[in-house]
Design a protein that fits this description.
A 6-stranded mixed sheet has the order 11-12-13-14-16-15, covered by helices on one side. The protein starts with 5 loop residues before the first helix and ends with a helix. Helices cover 49% and strands 15% of the residues. By secondary structure, the chain is of the alpha/beta class. Among the domains are: 205 residues, no CATH class; 98 residues, Alpha-Beta Plaits (2-Layer Sandwich), CATH 3.30.70. It is built from 22 helices and 16 strands. This is Cell division control protein 45 homolog isoform X2. It holds the Pfam family CDC45. InterPro entries: CDC45. It is found in: Nucleus.
């Protein structure tokens, strides 16, 4: 069920209990976790933190800990599946679920005893009515023939029997009609996967309601929202709306700290709202590297081709930036060039058909030396969590990423920025390689593997299915479904249900372990029949 009063029905319930936190491996979940940890520390709440990256880890961790805890908090996992069916908990176990994944599973919505959903009701949830999807079994168990037939004439018995048969036939028909309608309603409701309000924002809202919102918590809420924008999980309208909410909180906090002595100290922390360039890590990189490794500019210029490289040179010439300047670190560029850089780049970008070069965002200053954009922190934290270093486990990476969000661990944040640069370069090189060697198969209703440089104008309108080797020993691949990228895109992803249907129809051996339903593991030898089924489903 949806929790209406987060303070009374959630926080005050767990405040005097030992609780277990299951936290998914994404930046928004980490930020929500940091806010909740700060609140728990403030009120001396005992908790255990367990990072989980998929359903198997969640099930294993729950089995390990279910005897010690009655209260479980799930951050960015658990809302979009029947949690009780997966975990099979005891009747006195209670789950508090703060998750951005949509649609919310209907069983979770209508279970009042064990599932408590920490989800904002103002999100466009469109949950089906209870009577449309659940039916009282007692209605179906009624059976006729209870009345005594003793003393009745044979003709009366026959008439009564005919009436009962007609009544049962009518009931069965109504039941079939109801079930068919239920299937249609659930299909329409579950067809698309999308994301709701950032979990970090939900947790910050709770802190604010309890008058315990610190500037650090506000920054984590900003980073959580920015993660959704960087990962393209929410619409531009949703992002701008939520930025407006956080901007009011920033103004309130800045006004509150104006008269405090530490406002001008070396240890001060200042959050600012600003319009900045939509370029990855450009203030910690060279402008040239940032332009080449930002998805938006790399795709617009088509930098994998010689023509694209030439267009980039023309763009820089139009802006009036010498190559010597753009290829050195941003911090080392001439101050005269940096003064109006954002306006100059935006003006030239409009001429080159790039109308989204500036974005509403926030920055943070630690003292007088360290400045980061919210997107810088997202890239750094994400890179630390996904670090491929062999000596680090998933849990180690999770802790490193979590620590990097604290202002006392700037060394870890800077290490994350360096890792992020490597990852962005590797991503762009992989994409360029796929495009240049034509590793693309057009399957009709979708492109398979990667984007293809082609004159087919439908490419921009087609969704994309990518496959990457996962385990050579087990012979498995990871399949990812990505919705088409259009200006009017509602960020809804239909691949979760489509993958499920294609696997069922072909008996393909799949593992739906990821919290995002549009990411699955598949046996490599089943790939061909799986794709054929997917084509026929989407055609």
């Amino acid at each position: 069920m949806f929790v209406s009063d987060f303070r009374k029905e959630f926080y005050e319930v767990v405040q005097n209990q030992r609780v277990l936190l299951f936290v998914a491996s994404d930046v928004d979940a980490l930020c929500a976790c940091k806010i909740l940890q700060a609140l728990f520390q403030c009120d001396h709440v005992q908790y255990t933190l367990v990072p989980v990256s998929g359903w198997q880890e969640l099930e294993t961790a729950f089995l390990e800990h279910k005897e010690q805890f009655h209260y479980f908090i799930l951050i960015n996992c658990g809302a979009n599946v029947d949690l009780l069916d997966i975990l099979q908990p005891d009747e006195d176990t209670v789950f508090f679920v703060c998750d951005t994944h949509r649609p919310v599973n209907v069983v979770n919505v209508y279970n009042d005893a064990q599932i408590k959903l920490l989800i904002k009701q103002d999100d466009d949830l469109e949950v089906p009515a209870y009577d449309d999807i659940f039916r009282d079994e007692e209605e179906d168990k009624e059976h006729s023939g209870n009345e005594s037939d003793e003393g009745s004439e044979p003709s009366e018995k026959r008439t009564r029997l005919e009436e009962e048969i007609a009544e049962q036939t009518l009931k069965r028909r109504k039941r079939r009609e109801w079930e068919a309608r239920r299937r249609d309603i659930l299909f329409d409701y579950e067809q698309y996967e999308y994301h709701g309000t950032s979990s970090a924002m939900v947790m910050f809202d709770l802190a604010w309601m309890m008058s315990k919102d610190l500037s650090d918590m506000l920054w984590w809420a900003i980073v959580g929202l920015t993660d959704q924008w960087v990962q393209d999980k929410i619409t531009q309208m949703k992002y701008v709306t939520d930025v407006g909410i956080l901007q009011r909180h920033v103004s309130r906090h800045n006004h509150r700290h104006e008269d405090e002595e530490h406002a001008l100290s070396v240890d001060c922390m200042r959050i600012s709202f600003e319009y900045d360039l939509c370029l990855a890590l450009y203030q910690h990189w060279s402008l040239h590297d940032s332009l080449c490794n930002t998805c938006y500019t790399a795709a617009r210029f088509k930098l994998w081709s010689l023509h694209g490289q030439k267009r980039l040179q023309e763009f820089l010439a139009d802006v009036g930036l010498p190559l010597k300047q753009v290829k050195q670190k941003f911090q080392s560029m001439d101050v005269s060039l940096k003064e109006n850089l954002r306006e100059m780049i935006e003006e030239s970008a409009n001429k080159f058909g790039m109308k989204d070069m500036r974005v509403q965002t926030f920055s943070i200053h630690f003292g007088f030396k360290h400045k980061f954009l919210a997107s810088d922190v997202v890239f750094a934290t994400m890179s630390l969590m996904e670090s491929p270093e062999k000596d680090g486990s998933g849990t180690d990476n999770f802790i490193q990423a979590l620590d990097s969000l604290s202002r006392g661990n700037l060394d870890k944040l800077y290490r994350g920025l360096e890792l992020a640069k490597q990852q962005l370069r590797a991503t762009q090189q992989t994409i360029a390689s796929c495009l240049c060697t034509n590793l693309i198969i057009s399957q009709g209703p979708f492109l398979y593997c990667s984007l293809m440089e082609t004159k087919n104008r439908r490419c921009k309108l087609l969704p994309l299915v990518m496959a990457a080797p996962l385990s050579a020993e087990q012979g498995t691949v990871t399949m990812v479904g990505i919705p088409p990228e259009t200006d009017s895109s509602d960020r809804k992803n239909f691949f979760g249900r489509a993958f499920e249907k294609a696997a069922e129809g072909t008996n393909s051996r799949t593992l739906h372990n990821h919290f995002d339903l549009s990411v699955i593991e598949l046996k490599a030898e089943d790939r061909s029949k799986f794709l054929d089924a997917l084509v026929s489903l989407l055609s």
